[in-house]
Specification:
Shape: globular
Order of helices and strands: HHHHHHHHHHHHHEEHHHH
Strand order of the largest sheet: 1-2
Structural class: mainly alpha
Number of strands: 2
Radius of gyration: 22 Å
Helix content: 55-70%
Strand content: under 5%
Mean pLDDT: 94
C-alpha cells in the first residue's frame, strides 16, 4: 500500500504565540524616550494638524500613516503611549501576517515558525515597530496583502474574499507610504500572466484556471486594480475638510504632482544618509537616539541583525536559482518581491535615502532565509537550521539594550555593540 500523503498541521497557535511574545518584548520601554525622537518630530505635528483638520502638513507623504498616528493620540492621549501604540500593534500584525503568508505559500510548519522567529528577532523590524513613523504601517499592510494573496492561491474556495482583503490592504499600504506602490502592481500583473500562460486567449473568459480558480481575470482586475486605487483615494477624504486650503476632488492629481516635487526636493545632505548597496551589506546604521534622557544614558540603534542579514544574501541566491530552475513558486515570489522593492531604490531619483527604506526588502530576505532553512530541515539536516534560529535570538538578546532604550552605564557604552566603524 502507498503511504498516506503528509498533511502538516496549521501552525496558527505557534504563529500567535510568537506574535504575542514579540508584542510583549516590544512594549517594554515603549514610552521611552518620553519626548519625540528621530523622525517623530515630523510626523507627530503632522498627525495633530491632520486630526485638527486645520491645514495641510507634511504634504510630501500620503495621509494614512499620519491618520493612524493621530488615532493613537486620540485614543490614548498626546503622550508617548499614544504616539507609538499603533505602530507597535501594526508591527505585531505584520509579523503575524508574514508567518501566515509563509504557511500558505509553503505549507510548511517549520518555514512559518522559523520565519516568525527570524523576523521577530530582526533588529530592523523591532525598532521600526516602536517609533511613530510611516514605514511600519506600510510594510505591515503589504504583508497582510501577501497573506491574503497566498491564502487565495492555496484555498481557491476562499479566493474572492481573500482577493478583496488583499486589494484593500494594498490600497492602504500605498496610502501609508509610496514605497508600497511598486509592489502593489505586482499581484494583478502576476494574476494576468499566470492566467494567460495557462489558458491562452481563453483567459479573457474562463474562470477555471490558475492562479485562483473561480475568479475571472476581470474580477481580479477589480479586486487587485480598482479597489486598491479607490481605497487609496478615500484616505484623502479628511483633507477635503481642512479649515484652510481644503482639498477638492479636482485637485487630487495636482496634489500628487506637488508630492512628487517635494519628494525630489530633499537634497540637503544628512549624516545618516546611505544607499542601497550599503543596506544590503548591513553597512550603515542609524542612531535614532543616543543621549541622556529619562534619567539615564540611552540609545536606539537601527541596524539589521548581522547574522540573518548576511545569511539572507546566501538565501537570496538559493531562492533565485531554485525558484527559476525547480519551480519553487514560494521562493521565486519572495525573490521577485525583494528585487522589486529594492530595485525601486536603485533606480529612484531621490537624492537622500536612509537605511529604514530597506525595511520591506529585508523582510523578504528573511522570508527567503526561512525557506532555505526549511529545505535543509525537510532533507533531515536539522542542526544548522536550529543553530541559525538560536543564534539569531541570541544576537537579538545581546543587542536588546540598544534596540529598546535600556539604561546604559555611561556615554561610552555604545562601543560594546559597534562591530563596524560605520555603525558609529
Amino acid at each position: 500500500m502507498s503511504q498516506a500523503p503528509d498533511h502538516p498541521r496549521d501552525p496558527f497557535a505557534w504563529n500567535a504565540a510568537i506574535a504575542l511574545a514579540f508584542l510583549a518584548l516590544a512594549a517594554i520601554r515603549l514610552t521611552i524616550p518620553s519626548k519625540p525622537f528621530f523622525d517623530e518630530v515630523h510626523y507627530l505635528p503632522a498627525a495633530r494638524t491632520l486630526w485638527a483638520l486645520s491645514q495641510p502638513a507634511n504634504t510630501e507623504h500620503p495621509l494614512l500613516g499620519k491618520e493612524l498616528i493621530g488615532l493613537g493620540i486620540h485614543l490614548f492621549g498626546d503622550n508617548p503611549l499614544g504616539w507609538r501604540v499603533l505602530p507597535l500593534l501594526f508591527g505585531t500584525l505584520g509579523l503575524f501576517a508574514a508567518m501566515r503568508a509563509l504557511w500558505f505559500a509553503s505549507v510548511s510548519r517549520f518555514a512559518s515558525i522559523a520565519g516568525g522567529i527570524l523576523l521577530g528577532s530582526d533588529f530592523l523590524w523591532f525598532v521600526m515597530s516602536r517609533i511613530a513613523m510611516l514605514d511600519g504601517f506600510m510594510a505591515s499592510l503589504v504583508l497582510v496583502a501577501l497573506w491574503a494573496l497566498a491564502g487565495a492561491v492555496r484555498e481557491n474556495e476562499t479566493g474572492r474574499r481573500r482577493l478583496a482583503i488583499a486589494g484593500v490592504a494594498l490600497g492602504l499600504a500605498m496610502a501609508a507610504k509610496w514605497n508600497a506602490v511598486p509592489l502593489a502592481v505586482l499581484p494583478g500583473l502576476t494574476f494576468a500572466v499566470v492566467r494567460f500562460r495557462d489558458s491562452g486567449w481563453r483567459a479573457l473568459t474562463t474562470a477555471r484556471a490558475a492562479p485562483v480558480a473561480g475568479i475571472t481575470i476581470w474580477e481580479a482586475a477589480l479586486w487587485l486594480g480598482l479597489v486598491p486605487l479607490a481605497v487609496y483615494a478615500l484616505t484623502f477624504v479628511p483633507a477635503m475638510f481642512y479649515v484652510r486650503d481644503a482639498l477638492t476632488p479636482g485637485r487630487l492629481i495636482a496634489l500628487h504632482r506637488q508630492m512628487i516635487h517635494l519628494q525630489d526636493s530633499v537634497v540637503k545632505p544628512h549624516p545618516y544618509q546611505s544607499v542601497w548597496y550599503q543596506w544590503v551589506a548591513n553597512w550603515r546604521a542609524i542612531w535614532f537616539l543616543y543621549e541622556p534622557v529619562d534619567g539615564a544614558q540611552r540609545g536606539i540603534l537601527l541596524v539589521g541583525n548581522p547574522l540573518t542579514m548576511l545569511l539572507g544574501l546566501v538565501a537570496l541566491v538559493w531562492a533565485g536559482v531554485h525558484g527559476m530552475t525547480e519551480g519553487r513558486r514560494d521562493a521565486l515570489a519572495l525573490f521577485v518581491l525583494y528585487v522589486a522593492s529594492l530595485g525601486v531604490w536603485m533606480l529612484a531619483d531621490k537624492p537622500v535615502q536612509f537605511y529604514y527604506h530597506y525595511l520591506l526588502p529585508s523582510t523578504f530576505l528573511i522570508g527567503m532565509l526561512a525557506l532555505a532553512l526549511d529545505a535543509m530541515w525537510q532533507s533531515g539536516r536539522r542542526v544548522l537550521p536550529l543553530a541559525v534560529l538560536l543564534a539569531s535570538v541570541a544576537l537579538f538578546a545581546g543587542f536588546y539594550p540598544i534596540l529598546s532604550a535600556a539604561p546604559l552605564a555611561n556615554e561610552w557604552s555604545f562601543a560594546r555593540w559597534m562591530w563596524l566603524d560605520s555603525w558609529r
